[in-house]
Amino acid sequence: MKQVSLQPTERIDDLLTYDLKIIQSDEVFSFSMDAVLLGRFSSVPPKGRIVDLCTGNGVVPLLLSTRTRAEIWGVEIQERLADMAVRNAEINDLSERLHMVQGDLKTIHKTLGHGQFDAVTVNPPYLPVPNGEQNSNAHFAAARHEIHCTLEDVIAASAKLVKAGGKVAMVHRATRLVDIICLMRQYRIEPKRIRYVHARAGEEAMMVLIEGMKDGKPEIRTLPPLIVYTEKEEYCQELKDIYYGGRSALEFS
């Protein structure tokens, strides 16, 4: 592991899978299961170019690097998180393949180019900006709420960056599924695969993983649901495989 400088509140955590390490801090939003699932669900080319929007501290590019030899860009608007993403690439000796950029996804196509990517991944903020009081921590507020970008901004940006026939994969709240599908079609991204994530059997879906193809033909596959916890309140075997680098149905579905 390469040595990098840490800010006073930062620590280096074990990402568990493939011996990856990740810099995190309680002052900013840490990665969650959403990002891990997206990193395994998304279709990735064996080589080429991938861009991850709303990359945060770069966890999704780190995970994708274990599945492909493609070059991967991460785009993050918050300076603090973008800096952490750069150093996360460095400590894992991945700086030659992982390129972390501070920028606004609404205009990043002007820098990275139109239709230059084989795949786009994104774990966007889930909630509309609330009326009234917001979280006093600006990093937490931006991670949870559509302060810097709306769902439409995210899908419009993805459509500009991905090439025809390329894939766009997203994780979001299941309650936003209709909005996601409508906006994907509006921007010529045809939904092709969908998978619901449930905390427990018998409970409604809490998340949805969805992937579309730019200028694809209409047809969608609904994959088996992922049930996170067993009856013993343990992670299911599939999730254990994901976290510890095993062969996963999410990765190969």
UniProtKB/TrEMBL annotation:
Keywords attached to this entry: Methyltransferase, Transferase
Annotated Pfam families: MTS
GO MF terms, alphabetically ordered: methyltransferase activity
Methyltransferase small domain location: 35-171
GO biological process: methylation
Residues that span the membrane, as ranges: none
PANTHER family assigned: TRNA1(VAL) (ADENINE(37)-N6)-METHYLTRANSFERASE
Name of the protein: Methyltransferase
Species, as recorded: Paenibacillus plantarum
